[in-house]
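Subject: Prefoldin subunit 2

B.,
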Amino acid sequence: MFERIMASKAETDRMEPVNEQVVANMYASMRTELNQIYSKITELEMEASEHSLVINAIQPLDQSRRCYRMIGGVLVERTIKEVLPAVQRNKEGIEEVIARLNEALEKKKKEIAGFEAKYKIRIKKSDSDVKDDSSRKEGSAQGVLVGPASSSE
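Prediction pasted inline below.
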């Protein structure tokens, strides 16, 4: 029993960061994971959009009409009647994966927020970022003066 307690204490010690550099590395790793989830969601949303375009293009056509579908790198000739349900199923599967990734994204956001609160992490902007922000604000506040399209002389 004592060994089990010691083992669990050792595991907890391993999980607790030792210094600021380790905390920073863990935080950067978590942010990287978050960005990977964002990019995967974006990629899958594009794929679902492409599936929707295909569905909308072939749905009104004659169901016996021939069409071609890429399956595992091989172009296969089928009818719309055969292809349409498969494309719809694929789209639904992609949407399910997107939903699960969104859940994972929310979990990761909460995990990062907890980590930030626990270790009092604040993101500092570099001087160049601050200058860029101020120039953007000024640029967006400036207007453009355009003369009349045709002269009325």
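Residues 58 and 80 are 7 Å apart (CA to CA).

T.
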